[in-house]
Amino acid sequence: MTEGRTTGSARAFELLEPLVQAATVRVHAPPDGYGTAGTGPTWGSGFFIAPGWVLTCAHVVGEGGAAVRLTGREVGITFQSGRYAGNEAATGTVTGRVECVLPERLDERRPARRALWDLPDLALVRVLAPVSHACVWLTDRSRPRFDEVAYFGCTEDLGTPEITGRTTRLRGTAGNGAAIRLGGDDEIDPGMSGGPVVDLARGEVVGVVKARRNTGGGGLAVSVVQLRTLPTAGRGQTGLYRRVMQAHDLHHYDQHLSDLNTRRTWTDAHGELPDPDGDPYAGRGRLTPGERTTLCGLLAELPPPGSSEVVRALVEAARGEEPDPHPPAPLSWRDGLGLLYDPPGGAGEAAAMLRYATDVSVAEYREPPTPGADEELWDWVRATAERLWRPLRRELGERHEQGLAERARRRRASAGRAAHGTARSAGGLPPGASVLLEVWAHGWEEVFDWRVSVLAGPARPGRVTPVDSGVRVGPARLPEALRAPLAEAFRRCDTHEAAALLEVAVEPELFGLAVDEWALVGGVPLGVQRPVVLRHPVGGGAPGAAARWARVLAGPLLDERADCVGGRPRSPSAQWLAGLADNTVPVHCRAAALEPTLGSLHAVRQAGYGVVVCRRPPADPGVSCAPFHRGLREELADAGRAQVLPLRLQALRGRAYGADPDAYWAAGTALVWDDPARALPEDEPLQGDL
Questions:
Q1: What's phi and psi for 181, nearest 5 deg?
Q2: DSSP code of 439?
Q3: Runs of H (alpha helix) within 340-427
Q4: What string of DSSP letters covers 585-628?
Q5: At residue 155, does pLDDT exceed 60?
Q6: pLDDT attached to residue 346
Q7: Do residues 47 and 205 touch, judged by C-beta distance below 8 A?
Q8: For residues 432 and 459, what is the distance between their CA atoms, to the nearest angstrom?
Q9: At what angle do helices 289-300 and 349-361 cross, to 10 degrees?
Q10: Which residues does 554 contact at the CB level (< 8 Å), separation at least 6?
Q11: Which contacts (CB < 8 Å, 24+ apart) does range 476-484 have?
Q12: pLDDT confidence band for 212 (50 / 70 / 90)
């Protein structure tokens, strides 16, 4: 301990040090044969976050492997095995395999030697043998508290590798919240990278040691909340983050309930931590450590939520206000608890968490829960509320009854659909939240301002939650600038059954922006991964637009060339457009930023057409547009109604990406989809500094 530490933090360090050391590991080259501890030099540190799962830094598992792919690489893990000889824990060495790294692009592009690796610089390692070991307790808070912390890792101060801990304070954040700054109270030695950073006041791991300063003490750690950016699962699968966090919570729940040994658990330590500024667990205001561990375990017994927006909606209902939109998005029921600390108006955290747990017990899950799991959660809520206010107990009972009735109503309404299937309307888009990308041009300059938001959709019209924004970005840099904001927005909106819609709101001269071709995740274009549509910016509603929208959704569909006749350009008149049938889809085959197409796009909007097709023409101006028009006519006739067009266009892009020659005609095709039920925000971002 360094000088100047408070008595409380000194006591907290004493309580937490053995728990953290037992879960912290040394990372090195994989063992040969049966392998023992001490196999080669230390690459860095890591720590168990769930049975069989080690968290460390990507640069640690990349040690000495410049030409080696990180994902799938085998590493050695030396740890305290949990087999006790007297009072000392035995050590063991086992092989682990790197399951994934963050960001994913580190597998293809790595920094130069001795340079900082891109944030979040994390690696998740799966142990390849069943072993007995300890696990840390991870924070559920989206933001760290700037309090005293301890950091741990492998050092060789006395000539042999050992796990040691030191203390400092958090000094702020970096990397848009992805990293936290460690104060210079003590040195971070080589080998400590990848080790845990522990909040001493609350007894939870908040970060992963990443780097030390070249001059003096202190350095950087990565926030463990960045684990939520792990790659999402395919449709119908449970993502890696949710699986690992479920195992984490069940491990601590089992340890808390077990009476097979007398070793101190994390829950025990939480109950003994000194009070930093008023006991956070005393009285009726907060759950006790045992109650919190039990609640996390009971939530982990349930199937995961269908989407991040489901969690946020329940948190808002429990808090009484919209939760912190700060990324990353909450992906599990446990993450929702982390948004319920310090509720507004002096309301108690215990009350907010019990309201949330009540709502979760009657929620719709992505799959049927284990029989009795939801009732067990409600029974626990009811029993825990006995020590709280009588009016709250009555409120929770009424909340539970109303929730059961609403769930029964939803299930009756969905009768006939596949059990726990996607709530789509006759093959159309899911009605939930979508991702909104707005891009504005800077007049004569070739730079753009942008904003990414979550559009709540018809259930909560006009509700827009900002994710991120930027100014003065050149066209070549736009995909890279939007990579992280779009990924965060997709995490918030995607469900297990369907990828969320991406709505790109731009002026018609930007309809040629190839957003559907951007490969932001996994090298697969966005338009193949999810439905992508264009939208006009807000304003300028045309008379008769609602009638045209309803008619074209129902079909059958008629296509009409708007900007060409027999391959020659033309400008449609307002009278001609007004006279077309309401179920017509105007089609454009020429460059959106040039006349006559630009004027035609404005004209069809003024005439009230909400569904329009355009395309980015091929680079060779001599290529005929006839195959495009022919293929589109067949597609519209086969679709029958506009309701299914966003998903059919996604399927077409997938076929073309999969080298289906019959879909090549669709290259560059874009769908304008001005759904009146999905209102856009009225404001525009400020321009860059003058």
A1: -90, 130
A2: E
A3: 349-361, 373-384, 390-413
A4: EEE--S-TTSTTHHHHHHHHHHTT--EEEEE---S-TTS-SHHH
A5: yes
A6: 61
A7: yes
A8: 7
A9: 20
A10: 583, 641, 643
A11: 478/439, 478/448, 478/450, 479/518, 479/520, 481/450, 482/437, 482/450, 482/452, 482/518, 482/520, 483/520, 484/176
A12: confident
pLDDT for 403 beyond 60: yes
CB proximity list for 212: less than 8 A, separation 6 or greater: 187, 188, 189, 192, 218, 219
Q: Which tens digit of pLDDT belongs to each residue from 270-284?
A: 999 987 555 444 455
Mean pLDDT computed over every residue of the chain: 87
CA 253 → CA 15, 142, 625, distances in Å? 19, 22, 64
The structure's pTM equals 0.83
**322 is written with which tokens?**
């919209």
Specify the pairing of strand 179-182 against strand 219-223: antiparallel
The mean per-residue pLDDT over the stretch 1-9 comes to 57
Q: Is residue 185 pLDDT above 80, yes or no?
A: no
- Residue 224 phi, psi (nearest 5): -70, -15
* Residue type, position 400, single letter: H
Give the length of the chain: 690
- Dig out the tokens for 509 from the structure: 């001269």
- Give bridge partners of residue 440 from the DSSP assignment: 449
438-449 b/e (C-beta count within 10 Å ≥ 16 → b): bbbbeeeeebbb
Angle at which helices 645-657 and 626-639 pack, to 10 degrees?
130
Phi, psi of 101 (to 5 degrees): -130, 155
- Determine the pLDDT at residue 78: 94
Strands (E) located in 176-328: 179-182, 196-199, 204-212, 219-223
Which helix (H) or strand (E) is 162 found in, with range?
A: strand 162-174
Segment 506-538, tens digit of pLDDT: 999 999 999 999 998 778 999 999 999 999 997
Instruction: List, in sequence order, every residue forming a beta bridge with 569; answer none if it has no partner.
Output: 564
CA 163 to chain centre: 32
At 25-37, the pLDDT tens digits run 999 999 875 444 4
